[in-house]
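note to self — DONT lose this again. spent like an hour looking for the file last time. sequence + predicted structure for the chain T wanted, 251 res
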Amino acid sequence: MPLRLYVLMLYNKSTMYCSNDRTHDFSWGENFPLLYNHTSIAYLKRCSGFNSAKRGSMRDALQVAACTVKSRRIQELREKYPQAVLLPVRGKNKLPEALARTIGLSVNTNIRQLQKAQAPPRKDLSAMARLLHKPCFRGSVLGGENYIIVDDIVTQGGTVAALRQFILSKGGFVVAVVALAQSAGSGVLAPSPERIEQLSEKFDYSLLINVLRSYHIADDLREMTNSQIKYLSRFKTMEGLVKKIGKVYGM
């Protein structure tokens, strides 16, 4: 079957969390700071109360945050962005909000991540499924305000990227991202021009962009995270990438 026809068949079968906003430039730029990270994922998961915090216990979430945050990192964040507003990824998981409270700057709790009915938690999704199921958010953003996104664990950075795009689309700015823990290599959020160029040269660029837009992954490679670009680069061929998408949709 011709690749372009297969792409079209997948698109007709897919269901998306959100459609992309193509009226804004969501590129990270070359100077976006490294992730403000506090500990390893393995250590975080060993903390007493971690599981109950993920299930909604704010008391346990505050205890987990207290035993994992580094005071030096918090002080650095406060001094560099004293007027910024902390914006935790809000849902059933209370760890992001607990970390925001621990940092001590102003906190915006008006924005929440929307959950699609019967959708599995993002932690249970494969790397490709995370790309395809882009989170949605709802809430009020103050235009011109500087925000710091707060999450518990950053892996691909898809949730952070989606929340950043939501903020930018409402007129706000994102100056930094902070998390309790990160996977290896995910501390660099903004993809380098060299990495983007390598991916563009590896595949048929027009077809790649068409696939990314068709499945609401991204409108431009520059708005994806460094980890997402690295994941796409692992595929040897465009056919392999498209077939992986097909597997997610059961084709």
